[in-house]
Amino acid sequence: MANVLVFIDNPGQALKKSSLELLTIARSLGETAVAVNGELSDDVAGTLGAYGAATVFRPSAADLDDYLVAPKAAFLAAVADKSGATIVLLENSPEGKEIAARLGIRLSAGVITDVVAVDADGTAHKSVLAGSYTTTAKATTPVTVLSVKANTVDPEPAAAPGAPETLTVDVPADATAAAARITSREQKVASGRPDLTDARIVVAGGRGLDGDFGPVEELADALGAAVGASRAATDAGWISHDAQVGQTGKTVSPQLYISAGISGAIQQKAGMQTAKVIVAVNKDAESPVFEIADFGIVGDLFQVLPQATEEIKKRKA
Amino acid sequence: MKIVVLVKHVPDAQFDRHLTGEGHTTDRDESILSELDEYALEAALQLAEARGGAKAGNKVIALSMGPAGAVNAIKKSLQIGATEGVHLTDGALAGSDAAATSLALAAAVRHLGADTPVDLVLTGMASTDGETSLVPAQLAERLGLPQVTFASSLEVDGGRVSARRDADTHSETVEASLPAVVSVTDQINEPRYPNFKGIIAAKRKSITTLSLADIGVDSSQVGHAGSWTRVTAAEERPPRTAGTIITDEGDAGIKLVDFLAAQKLL
Ligand SMILES: Cc1cc2nc3c(=O)[nH]c(=O)nc-3n(C[C@H](O)[C@H](O)[C@H](O)COP(=O)(O)OP(=O)(O)OC[C@H]3O[C@@H](n4cnc5c(N)ncnc54)[C@H](O)[C@@H]3O)c2cc1C
Ligand SMILES: Nc1ncnc2c1ncn2[C@@H]1O[C@H](COP(=O)(O)O)[C@@H](O)[C@H]1O
User: Fold this and answer.
1) Per residue in B104-127, pLDDT tens?
2) Among the atoms of ligand 1, which is closest to the Cα of residue A284?
3) What is the ipTM of this complex?
4) Ligand 2 mean position to B8 CA, how many Å?
5) In b/e form, how buried is each residue of A6-38, taking b as 16+ CB within 10 angstroms?
6) Which residues of A touch B19 (CB under 8 A)?
């Protein structure tokens, strides 16, 4: 069995689902240690135990968040050395991948990103080229670093919860020497809708919305869905860039993706074609989006979406 | 300023893309300059122009690592406005993963900084084929330089670089001293196209070819041999097939809900 190290950055007051997933995967691979940066509440410590963590490593420094990526990788490398980890699991966020990248160099370890499943020997499964291939990849080095996508396993606590031991690990003195400093941070207002990357349902709008995201937002709210967008819509400023789905936006794999007024360019498809079910509403029957839609409606979204929203409200009432 | 822009030659996403050979590497037959690297090039050109351009001694060096065809990504960069091109090419580089790529590119950047130091290394946010975004961070780690990644705006002033980064829950301002490795997103600018003048001017610009020996890298450190990951299997996913397509006759919204109900998605 492997020694597995999970990195959890700033858990806050409760562990995110994606962190619970990492802990669940880690347990299936071997003995789990966790490295936590930021505050560690009693609740979170309890959950770590419930998910089978044997050891929790904490950094000796409290200012890792003041810097970009590099000192976190340095801390994690020190923990990996100390814990004897042979597999390190991180979140597949942009920052998670970058920490993985630098950790890989520090440990001379192979890094695999966008992982959706891990075998007992550390072999990773992922899809590449905008979802057109599924591949298996393996590190050839003693340590394997994997960033794992959210929504790949159901979180499950350990059969027997433990009380992990907490150890402090020194952050190397040179960790911040060549690191970029974060000089200000601006919190964004939360939309109140589910998070786009792990929503069960996404309703997305494109240029066809012509500046009015109302019909998309109302349908999303009736379905309890997240709102997504094409780059044409975010570039036009109709909706925040955070909502962009695609090659340079988010990659989503929801149970249901409803695409409205989006033509279905390759860069858009790159972010959504692994959705379980795709529904497309577009007034142009020739739109490429219909090539990948399970259910397509050739029609005006300003008619179809409000009608569907009304019907859903009626049926749910 | 002396800026190195990393440009990659990648298969054109408009065509079907394939993994080939024993190492399941991407087939590069129909390849282009990675679109996301055009944003890095544009950012470099704007920084150079703001300082008086090439006439004032500012250099924008387009560096690409890849097989013979990768020279096309460099030529395009020269047409767009880079002042010179560098092509790192060597048979032993084939099949390099991000770790091996960053090792070779780090050595090339050091080589280019041997006479006068490089102030800035600019890269795209991700290559449109590998899509890992690993190379910029690994390059920074290898060069011992600050990394400023996913910049959606960029300013350079008095030996310092500052950038804005956008995450889901917050945006942040990041600062570092030069030299630094900076990757930029597609939000940072609107890349220019090569114009006729640029295309003519590019013919007179020089492209230097570097081999592994030139940059002091041993062939065992790169390529399949030097990579720390292996793709052990690759399977083409069956393309999604179109399902039911209907034309709205006034009740498509209701039919949509019927479909969702039948799929148990309500
Ligand atoms: C480097 C690069 C990265 C990119 N990254 C992304 C990315 O991450 N995500 C992304 O989405 N794009 C991305 N793009 C852009 C992409 O190529 C397309 O330009 C974009 O997806 C088009 O958006 P759209 O479908 O909304 O607009 P369009 O292609 O203009 O399509 C609008 C559609 O709306 C339909 N329509 C209009 N009115 C109505 C109506 N009343 N009812 C129903 N349908 C209507 C039209 O028939 C049309 O099909 C990228 C491009 C580049 C070069
Ligand atoms: N072979 C290469 N030659 C030049 N630049 C590269 C190469 N590979 C990656 N890069 C740079 O690194 C960035 C991120 O690539 P990647 O880590 O592969 O997603 C790209 O946008 C390029 O700027």
Assistant:
1) 999 999 999 999 999 999 999 998
2) 47
3) 0.91
4) 6
5) bbbbebeeebbebbbbbbbbbbebbbbbbbbbe
6) 128-129, 133, 135
